[in-house]
Model the fold of this input.
Amino acid sequence: MEGHAGTQLSTLLRAIPRDLDMADAAEADLDPDSLAHKAWHVLRGQPGIGWVTAGKLLARKRPRLLSVYDHVVGCAVGQPRSFWHAMHSALRADDYALQRELLVLRQTAELPEEVSVLRVCDVVVWMRHHTDHQDVGCAWE
Done:
């Protein structure tokens, strides 16, 4: 991105820690007035960038903090008021049970630590649901 929006996005991304896991993040890191949401809105304000693309770009830039949310994932998990907050709660529930399970899956699959827990979750949800999503069609869309 170029111009003011590019500068604004770069500034926001520099302020969002690269090493912050969603499970360890504070609620404020995911709130509507958070840096991550501001970055999402900057991206959404660009021609041709929809909500899915904006989210996937941010998940790519901050894979430990931000998860992919697209039509397939939304159909599989529903439409929470805030997907980021719902994921945050799910990862922390029952003394971080889901977080630990995803870490075990990553290790079992012999994936490098650079593959975030959120990416493991994204792939599991997408792989589990994408065929049904295509074949049956989801009411979510």
In short: The helical segments are 3-15, 35-44, 51-61, 71-77, 83-108, 117-135. Residues 3-135 form one domain. The two ends are 29 Å apart (CA to CA).
